[in-house]
Amino acid sequence: MTSEEAEAILQEYFAPWIRQLGLRVEEVGERHAIVRLPWSDDLAREGGGLCGQAMMAAADTATVVAISAARGGFVPMTTVQQSTTFQRPVTGKDVLVDVRLTKLGRTLAFADITMRADGGSDITAQATTVYALLA
Amino acid sequence: MTSEEAEAILQEYFAPWIRQLGLRVEEVGERHAIVRLPWSDDLAREGGGLCGQAMMAAADTATVVAISAARGGFVPMTTVQQSTTFQRPVTGKDVLVDVRLTKLGRTLAFADITMRADGGSDITAQATTVYALLA
Amino acid sequence: MTSEEAEAILQEYFAPWIRQLGLRVEEVGERHAIVRLPWSDDLAREGGGLCGQAMMAAADTATVVAISAARGGFVPMTTVQQSTTFQRPVTGKDVLVDVRLTKLGRTLAFADITMRADGGSDITAQATTVYALLA
Amino acid sequence: MTSEEAEAILQEYFAPWIRQLGLRVEEVGERHAIVRLPWSDDLAREGGGLCGQAMMAAADTATVVAISAARGGFVPMTTVQQSTTFQRPVTGKDVLVDVRLTKLGRTLAFADITMRADGGSDITAQATTVYALLA
Asked: Which residues, in sequence order, are CB contacts of B12 under 8 Å at separation 6+?
């Protein structure tokens, strides 16, 4: 799957409210994907930092992109569980959402997602997700 | 704190993207809050169901409301960790987000959040959150 | 299923290391179970408090008891995910592990587990678990 | 801190029940540690696989080792939250528990823990932990 095809999945399968995040697929591979969450003042909470809700949403969405890429196309799936830790604030910068599929089973998929401010090496947030694959 | 005062916190401290969820405070108490996430087609993902990202965002936001109510006003705080399980789909209905603060310490707060479709008794999603209180 | 039958499951299906916890089934019902984790100095970490590892293990184990009771007998299953928050220390007291099954599907089960020191009302720890049912 | 000093922490600060796991420090560094969970039939659940409870306990314990190493000695700390996903069964093999501290703050520490069967590259289980540092 190319980044363009993965990008099309972002446009087609997600809620309008999620599309407002403006996520962009930077890279897709056999078992991983990198998605960019562009900075926007619409995502800034009191104090000016990027709201954690946008990072949780980006992690979930990026997992769907990675699983779709690994399966060669979108398959119906549903999030079973997501755990997220918030480690450092981000202000005024895009966030790169790096998803690695650690297990792609027949009915369950597991992912590890690390998020970093663009240009930074420190982890902003980390998530793990579990998905049920429905086809 | 009254529901109106809690409602004002929703308007004042959250990102514009979160305010688009149209969350409404139904009830606040000493250690709990109930927040309504109104159904909107903008929150529907492929297949028509409410997107999980909106539920995660609502759980996080409702926790801030509950902690603020318990402290008698908004205090700076930051989400440390959120774990969410997604148990049943919701289509075409509001979701009631019920937050109970299970521990309100000096520097850390813990909450248990159950989400149900309006009028239903089955759990749609459950979350636990940990917050760091900065004042 | 009676408490005695549930107790037999504890003896039969768990690792010897887990049986050393001395867990006892206090109550089983259609969608819940209460399991006692008896205080033991062998479970005390530096400082004298009950170690969190014992609480995580008890929550996991108690979920198996609750699912088995709901299904009318032990079925092969495997833990998919467990999230635990640790909220208050416990010293010198048993812990009551209260499991409610919030969803018992065909292939996945979800549980909410609250732990309290015997005689106390405050939550010591809370866990959520997701299980894959293999039969 | 040397592996020997880290090993001494394992002996000194953990509950007798945890010491029965026979964990061994393989490696410690500025922001990471590798701990070995030796295979034992005492840790095998019904069906013969390593019980998940032992992996959760090892992940928690290994985090304490990594934080102590990073701080140059044991400091009082308490687990705030642990999330674990179980991805593949292990039978008859040691498990290597690889902890990376992703944030070591003044009052909170965050870790990412991956577990693999000795000699394997696939992930058996993954955990994230949050600790409160009390000194």
From this structure: A46, B74
